[in-house]
Design a protein that fits this description.
By secondary structure, the protein is an alpha+beta fold. It has four domains: 2-51 and 58-388, Na+/H+ antiporter like fold; 401-479, Alpha-Beta Plaits (2-Layer Sandwich), CATH 3.30.70.1450; 487-564, Uridine Diphospho-n-acetylenolpyruvylglucosamine Reductase, domain 3, CATH 3.30.465.10; 581-612. It has helices at 2-28, 32-43, 56-76, 80-112, 117-126, 132-141, 148-160, 162-177, 184-215, 222-240, 245-257, 264-289, 299-322, 329-337, 343-348, 351-354, 360-379, 382-388, 471-479, 486-492, 503-510, 523-531, 582-627, and strands at residues 401-404, 414-419, 440-443, 446-448, 461-466, 495-498, 540-543, 546-554, 557-564. A five-stranded antiparallel beta sheet has the order 1-2-5-3-4. α3 (56-76) packs across α10, α3 (56-76) runs parallel beside α11 and α8 (162-177) crosses α9 (184-215). The termini are far apart. It is found in: Cell membrane. It is a multi-pass membrane protein.
């Protein structure tokens, strides 16, 4: 009994230490997952805690369950609109990008560690996937507001590339364990079964989850338990029957999260808290599993592999995969840099040990060191890099809290809360519509009603009941600061225009040049024509002396367009891009070729001029001699 209490005490203490040390991350900007790993290392056998934990099967089991929970929540919080914006580039990175990274890092490991090709490629496969927990934390919790297409690409890639990395790792481990007896057809069949089975089980599981939550009447507190149980059930069934459980649980979360669920907000809160717990448990446990005293002998080759991964393999894979898509050089550079490695790589590094490979501990130590270096180098620099590349966009102001109400019948209402912003319309004199009157106002800690408050002020916290369809209107009324905020005006323009006005009307109103074939197009049609139906907020079009900016979108439709009277380009010009687009390279090569031939022509002209001058001198001398 005492040992059980001691285990519970140690586990609870580690959780509390991890949570409270996360305050350090928010204060100094350190990657939070690095803090969790550090707590595990400090508590391990070589740290001050002295905890001897080397149960790799238990670690893999706990880590797999934690990763399944994280991936389910990742899918649950990803909107279908993100897939409309970035499905193809993200899925290309999650498949071809993982293979390319495996090949490049494996080649480096072949010479840095002197391993046979199969084992070297295994090292590449282990560290080939970006970590969903690390990327989601940086983008959603870290306060980095990016353009939708860049953010969606990173989120979808990090949520979907784990199955590919897991497949490559397990296939290579089985190939090594079998002495190369596996045929390419067996591996191809295994891949099709894993991916196809994962998608099918995920679709069926998502439908089952929606049915269970919306059709079965339970106590309110049981719905989160049902969603968690079904998520783990889907994960286990898919894995047992040969599919990818990780892909299945992600797809199930994606399907369920985009459906109308009973108590959706409470489900999101539950899974968000559970994901935090899973991240802490997984990273602390993997830190406990490590033995830092073994790191020094592998530090040099691991550092070399980390440099190859960060500076060569990931950028080259991203450049190749995104070449067919419309990403700027700055965006490609940023996506290449946000290739953080995390718990998935360390978890996969346990697989060789589970299969009894002789160098299992070596794979684990190398993967652990690479993850540490990735979090240190990339995790610490993502926010400054996003600012330097000018990819940060103004955040959308929305409710600070939303509570879904369970009302009888078909009534669909929510309780929403807003903190009134300094330049919101209700503060600057905008009349408050009847349907938007708050039920409760908190000012200076005192509760007041709309009848006792004459005018709303900046800093007031207001609560009101509303239909979900009106939340977007309330965002503009209570939280919108875009009209007067200088940063927002630089990004979204000086004026706001409806997207259904015609190009001809705009040209006539502002005296702009007009192409006859575009005169009858609406501004929305003009953007669709230019960006091939993949318009997103922040896209820009030059029209004479002004610039048109995609401002507000709803389900892929352009609603309003900003007009910049003195155009600035906060996201356009490359900031000495590390990774230029293929088109830019072609233009640069063409320009270099033109300059080369122009210089040849100049030299030829100068030589001809000098020859002509010499002939003229000789002719002049001869004519002078004849006269003499």
């Amino acid at each position: 009994m005492e040992s059980i209490n001691l285990i519970i005490l140690v586990a609870a203490a580690l959780l509390l230490v991890s949570i409270f040390t996360s305050l350090i991350s928010f204060r100094i900007g350190a990657p939070l997952l690095l803090i969790f790993l550090g707590v595990g290392l400090a508590a391990g056998e070589d740290g001050i805690g002295g905890i001897d934990f080397d149960n790799t099967p238990a670690a893999f089991l706990i880590g797999s369950v934690a990763l399944a929970i994280i991936l389910f929540e990742s899918g649950f919080d990803t909107r279908f609109s993100s897939y409309r914006a970035a499905a193809w580039p993200a899925l290309t990175l999650a498949t071809a990008g993982v293979v390319a990274t495996t090949a490049l890092v494996g080649t480096a490991a072949r010479y840095a560690l002197g391993l046979p090709w199969q084992e070297a490629l295994l090292v590449g496969a282990i560290v080939s996937s970006t970590d969903a927990a690390a990327v989601f934390f940086l983008l959603r919790v870290g306060g980095i507001t990016l353009r939708d297409r860049v953010r969606s690409t990173l989120e979808i890639e990090s949520g979907t590339n784990d199955p590919m990395s897991i497949f490559l790792t397990i296939a290579l481990v089985e190939l090594i364990a079998a002495g190369g007896a596996e045929s390419p057809w067996d591996l191809l069949l295994m891949f099709a079964t894993q991916i196809g089975g994962g998608v099918l089980f995920g679709l069926a599981g998502g439908w089952l989850l929606i049915l269970a939550i919306n059709r079965i009447r339970l106590e309110q507190g049981l719905y989160p338990v049902v969603s968690l149980s079904l998520a783990l059930f889907i994960f286990a069934v898919a894995g047992t029957l040969g599919g990818s459980g990780f892909l299945a649980v992600y797809v199930a979360g994606l399907i369920a999260g985009n459906a109308k669920l009973r108590g959706a907000q409470s489900l999101r809160r539950f899974h968000n808290g559970l994901t935090w717990l899973s991240q802490i448990v997984m990273f602390v446990m993997l830190g406990l599993l490590a033995t830092p005293s073994q790191f020094p002998e592998l530090l040099a080759p691991a550092a070399l592999l980390a440099l190859v991964l960060i500076l060569v393999a990931r950028p080259l894979a991203v450049w190749l995969c995104l070449a067919p898509f419309r990403f700027t050089a700055n965006e490609t550079t940023f996506i290449a840099w946000v290739g953080l490695r995390g718990a998935v790589s360390i978890l996969l590094a346990i697989v060789p040990t589970l299969f009894g490979l002789p160098d299992g501990q070596t794979y684990f130590n190398i993967a652990f060191l690479i993850v540490l270096m990735s979090l240190l180098v990339q995790g610490w620099t993502i926010r400054p890099l996003a600012h330097w590349l000018k990819l940060i966009v103004p955040p959308r102001i929305g409710p600070v809290d939303r509570v879904e109400l369970e009302l009888p019948g078909q009534a669909d209402y929510e309780l929403v809360a807003y903190t009134i912003r300094e330049h919101s319309p209700v503060v600057t004199g905008h009349r408050l519509p009847r349907w938007a009157r708050p039920s409760l106002i908190i000012r200076d800690g005192q509760v007041q009603t709309v009848h006792t408050v004459r005018h709303l002020q900046a800093g007031d916290l207001v609560y009101l009941f509303t239909a979900p369809s009106r939340v977007a209107l309330l965002d503009r009324l209570f939280g919108e600061t875009r009209e007067l905020a200088e940063d927002d005006r630089q990004f979204f323009g000086d004026l706001s225009l409806k997207a259904d006005i015609t190009v001809g009307a705009l040209a006539e109103l502002y005296g702009l040049p007009l192409s006859v074939r575009n005169a009858k197009l609406t501004l929305a049609d003009l953007f669709r024509q230019e960006f091939r139906d993949s318009v997103e907020v922040g896209d820009r079009l030059r029209m004479g002396s002004v610039e048109l900016i995609a401002r507000d979108m709803d389900e892929g439709r352009l609603l309003t367009v900003g007009l910049a009277l003195e155009p600035a380009t906060p996201t356009a010009g490359p900031r000495i891009p590390v990774i230029p687009r293929p088109g830019d390279l072609l233009h640069a090569l063409e320009a270099a070729r033109s300059r080369f031939y122009f210089r040849l022509w100049q030299r030829r002209q100068r030589r001809q001029a000098r020859r002509a001058e010499r002939r003229a001198r000789r002719a002049l001398k001869r004519s002078g001699g004849d006269r003499g």
